[in-house]
Design brief:
It contains 9 helices and 12 strands. By secondary structure, the chain is an alpha+beta fold. It has a 5-stranded antiparallel beta sheet, with helices on both faces. The protein has a 5-stranded mixed beta sheet with strand order 7-9-10-12-11. Strands 6-8 form a two-stranded antiparallel ribbon. Helix 5 runs parallel beside helix 7 and helix 7 runs antiparallel to helix 9. It is elongated and about 125 Å long.
Length: 388
């Protein structure tokens, strides 16, 4: 849990800083592009106006200008560019862009494949086309080339700093959780002894009790059983968060077969169709006690929440173990909280669950580097999947 919290903390900081940097870069690029694009357009218009005023295009187009942006003006008449005299544009490039300029619409435009921009206007009997380098786009790429590596470097530095900060930030939460664990463990141990004594006393009293007395003693015994189960579940939940247990190579097929076999009589009593498909010789590395408890917990959960004449299917194939209730459906709202501690999807009074079984299973899966997930829909029912 602490590791997830730290991860969320680090990811949140890096993403937020990344968004700020990217937005800042986007604003800079937009402003820079607009300024340079306006400057180039003004220069294209100025060149065309100067050319018209000087009437140079009737004999020879104006080539270049005393500016930092090279510009060439062409005259277009009867679908042909003419009076071109310049060494600024290679012959091959002129050959490639000529059809584009001839067919271009009037107004401003660009030729991105060649990094050029143009303005095309009509002057009575012919057209004038001013062509220049696409300085606005080029400078944007130049800025990106400089700032993108800096942004990546900045995010890397932020990531490293965030990792160290996260340790300090979650330390109070970690200490609080540890205190809660100790408190729950101590209280659970303190409760377990008197409950066990009460149950033993009830058993003795039941031997000599008459009909009416037996009814009340049975009620006490049932409530004591519930309390004992809750206490044991809380202790199990505390244990799942404790590192330890010997990891070893396990034959998962044999564990699943043994656990599924123990539920066959229950399936018969509840009139549930019970199917098993277990692939042989599936091996994993994990803590055996945890895996046995995890498998048993999911199968037990399937029987506890089975619908009338339900079909329960246990499957082990490759690295995936699944438990499916064909006729059981969980609402989407409940599905999002199914592994939360003390969360109970069925709010009816008949539900005797304390909402810890699946939370414990989820912690056991994480502890053994497995992923527990669930899906549910009306056609396929509810499926719990463990990916080892």
């Amino acid at each position: 849990m602490i590791n997830k919290l730290r991860t969320k903390f680090v990811v949140t900081i890096v993403v937020m800083v990344g968004i700020v940097l990217v937005l800042t870069l986007a604003i800079v690029l937009t402003i820079n592009y607009n300024i340079n694009n306006r400057r180039v357009n003004e220069m294209l218009t100025s060149e065309i106006n100067n050319t018209i005023d000087s009437q140079i295009t009737r004999t020879q187009p104006k080539i270049g200008r005393p500016d930092d942006i090279p510009c060439v003006v062409f005259a277009l008449k009867d679908g042909t560019l003419y009076n071109y005299q310049s060494n600024d544009i290679p012959t091959e490039l002129l050959k490639n862009i000529s059809p584009i300029l001839v067919n271009a619409k009037y107004g401003y435009g660009n030729i991105p494949q060649y990094g050029l921009v143009y303005e095309k206007v009509y002057n009575g009997t012919y057209s004038l086309i001013a062509v220049a380098d696409d300085v606005a786009t080029k400078e944007c790429f130049d800025i990106l080339a400089v700032f993108l590596p800096l942004i990546v470097l900045a995010l890397a530095v932020i990531l490293i700093i965030s990792i160290f900060i996260s340790k300090w930030a979650v330390r109070p939460i970690e200490e609080n959780l540890e205190q809660q664990k100790h408190f729950i463990a101590n209280v659970s141990h303190d409760l377990k002894t008197p409950i066990t004594v009460m149950m033993a006393n009830n058993s003795i009293l039941l031997k000599d009790a008459n009909g009416e007395q037996k009814q009340w003693i049975d009620s006490n015994q049932n409530e004591a059983n519930k309390m004992l189960k809750l206490v044991n579940s809380m202790l199990d939940l505390i244990k799942t968060g404790v590192k330890g247990g010997k990891r070893e190579k396990l034959n998962l097929s044999e564990i699943v077969e043994a656990e599924t076999l123990s539920f066959e009589s229950l399936a018969y009593d509840q009139k549930i169709t019970y199917n098993t498909h277990i692939e042989k010789e599936i091996n994993i590395t994990a803590v055996k006690e945890d895996i046995v408890k995890l498998i048993a917990s999911l199968i037990d959960n399937a029987f506890k929440h089975a619908a009338n004449e339900d079909i329960i299917t246990i499957t082990l194939k490759g690295n995936k173990f699944t438990v499916n209730n064909k006729k059981t459906h969980i609402n989407k709202e409940d599905l999002n909280h199914i592994f939360d501690r003390f969360y109970i999807a069925d709010k009816s009074r008949s539900n005797k669950s304390h909402g810890l079984g699946l939370a414990i299973a989820y912690e056991l899966a994480n502890k053994n580097k497995a992923k527990l997930s669930t899906t549910s829909n009306k056609s396929d029912g509810t499926t719990f999947t463990i990916a080892f």
